[in-house]
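Narrative of activities, Objective 1.

The group set out to show that a structural description can be obtained from nothing but a protein's sequence at a throughput compatible with the screening campaign. Below is one input-output pair from the validation batch, recorded exactly as produced.
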Amino acid sequence: MQKTSEIYKHLYHYTTWQGLKGILQTQSLWATNYKFLNDYTEIILFRNKLVNLVYPIAFEGYKQLIMHKPSLKHQIQKQGGLEHVVRHDDEVLIDSMYNALGDEIYILSFCGEPEKQSVAHNGLLSQWRGYGAGGGTALIFDTKKLEEILDKEAMSYEYSVVLLADLIYSDDEQKLKEELSEDLKILAEIAKQFFDHETVSKRQYIDSSKGYLPFVRCISRYKHFGFSEENEVRVVALPTLNDQIIKFAEADGIALKPEKARKFRSNKGQHIPYIELFDSADTKLPIEKIIIGPHKNKEARKAELLGLLPETDIEIVCSEIPYADR
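Output recorded for this entry:
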């Protein structure tokens, strides 16, 4: 898998004016629980792709099982027929993979560096519209350095997965085949074991652990094409709940790293779970530039930032897009 820094030299993170000041003060970024993002199909959109991948594998497995145990044919017919049973068990397998992950999936979003220089210098209008009258800001990060501090984050706390990757939109089948084919191949091999007639008849144990990371990559990198203008790159973090694994770790003599604290923020009556990334005291965010979005007081905001960041190497500019929220 290609590193994100090989695709984009810089990444853009859009946030509010107050959000910007909080980031500069704490030198950390928030990753939000996926269930509270603005796309309600997050993570689950890839489910049907996986169901369709596994169906012919499951169908062939059950055909072989019936050939070896013809007595099962009548039982399967009583349950609605072969196609119905295969579809049901196929969906049960995929849903069990989702359930095994739980809800501890946190996402931090960036936009990949735009090719068009006018957008790179002034920001994306759709993002500025999203911040309305309060005005937004864009922090521009050095991607390679961001990868370095993300590696440090992953080493400092107990995570099962931490990755940084660009997204594959649902209308781009070519990119899906090019970038997820190996992961899908691994998942197909595991599914084949689950539906192999000998495995089913003997109820053999199947080690599906090698499919964990490919599964996470597939479901977290796939997004509806309606969001493609954002050109999203994201951090996907799955922090581990230590109390669920502490007995196994102790039995194997493994010393666990600290557990990542879950925090909550309030928004429109909701308590939204998030985690703070890069919150180590010796970590500095690799911010190269800040764009202050369209706002009636954008020049005053620039002056305020220059006062907050004396002797800074960060370039601070105002977007020239003449957008005004009504």
